[in-house]
Specification:
heterodimer; A: 116 residues; seven-stranded mixed sheet; four-stranded antiparallel sheet; B: 112 residues; mainly beta; six-stranded mixed sheet; 0% helix; globular
């Protein structure tokens, strides 16, 4: 049981390049999330998927797109990377759906992205 | 003003000490209160969560919520060097989907 896995672990991009961050969970969880973590800013939600087939914007969605490929997988795409997107990206999943949806989240190990 | 405030530390304590980590918040609608532990270069790991006010204990960890003061605490008894990590508080409202608001984390170092 691997929990939440993310690939790649590290990535360096040039401004304007695109890439997709992959996330998969093997816990049969309904909900999945993408966060970014920056010094002094805490974790900020980029997008979330409350259930298979649905996605919604979080607080910092600009410059990103997501795909909930199936119940297990949730990918994050940067279409045209900018230096402001240099960050550590975490994927998370949660078993709950409905009231208190996001209170119990399980995080992946993160992807460290640098955009030059 | 941020919705959730957390002292960044670092907080250094000797092994065996009782550690108190705290967060204040401004949104009185928050009902769920969580504590996550994050080791360096790892993802956050949920320690415990509480609903509304009161205390919750799990081994050496006790979470306390005082909604009247908008103040939450995490106490660690008999602290160990393995407790050295950054501790994030988090909170959300109840009802349907409610996003989680995270604190910026307090870095704790337990010195052997």
């Amino acid at each position: 049981n691997a929990g939440v896995t993310q690939t790649p672990k590290f990535q360096v991009l040039k401004t304007g390049q695109s890439m997709t961050l992959q996330c998969a969970q093997d816990m049969n969880h309904n909900s999945m999330y993408w966060y970014r973590q920056d010094p002094g800013m805490g974790l900020r939600l980029i997008y979330y998927s409350a259930s298979e087939g649905t996605t919604d914007k979080g607080e910092v969605p600009n410059g990103y797109n997501v795909s909930r490929l199936n119940k297990r997988e949730f990918s994050l795409r940067l279409e045209s990377a900018a230096p402001s997107q240099t960050s550590v990206y975490f994927c998370a999943s949660s078993p709950h759906q409905g009231t208190g949806l996001a209170r119990e989240q399980y995080f992946g190990p993160g992807t460290r992205l640098t955009v030059t | 003003q941020k919705e959730v405030e957390q002292d960044p530390g670092p907080l250094s304590v000797p092994e065996g000490a009782i550690v108190s980590l705290n967060c204040t918040y401004s949104n009185s609608a928050f009902q769920y209160f969580m504590w996550y532990r994050q080791y360096s270069r790892k993802g956050p790991e949920l320690l415990m969560y509480t609903y509304s006010s009161g205390n919750k204990e799990d081994g050496r960890f006790t979470a306390q919520v005082d909604k009247s003061s908008k103040y939450i605490s995490l106490f660690i008894r008999d602290s160990q060097p393995s407790d050295s990590a950054t501790y994030l508080c988090a909170m959300s409202r109840s009802g349907g989907y409610q996003k989680v608001t995270f604190g910026t984390g307090t870095k704790l170092q337990v010195i052997p």
